[in-house]
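Today's session is about reading a structure prediction critically. Students often jump straight to the picture, but the first step is always the sequence itself: look for stretches that repeat, for charged clusters, for runs of hydrophobic residues. Only then move on to the predicted structure, which in these notes is written as discrete structure tokens rather than atom positions. Here is the chain we will use throughout the hour.
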Amino acid sequence: MSVLLYRLGHFAYARPWYVIAGWLAVVSAVVALLVVNPVKLSNEVRIDGTPAQEVIDDLAKWSRWPSGRENDSSSRTPPTALLRRLGNWRISSARSMMMH
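Below is the predicted structure for this chain, in token form.
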């Protein structure tokens, strides 16, 4: 391993412009790949199958529900069953926290 590192260092010292050109080629290739296929960032965190995620999905579904009436706050209110389910989830998770 030491021989390989010695040869690499010797090559880099003897031919610095080749090494600089090589690094520029690597950086250019990475930039080109990122331009063609950019990184997609998201703040969404999902844990499917949990009661909390089910309630979040239900609330999202009801918040997009078309009301047909302008400025009517009652049409944006989620149904009572959904709120009851949310309350039951909070009670059950609080009980489980007290048991641990």
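Discussion point for the tutorial: Residues 2-36 form one domain.
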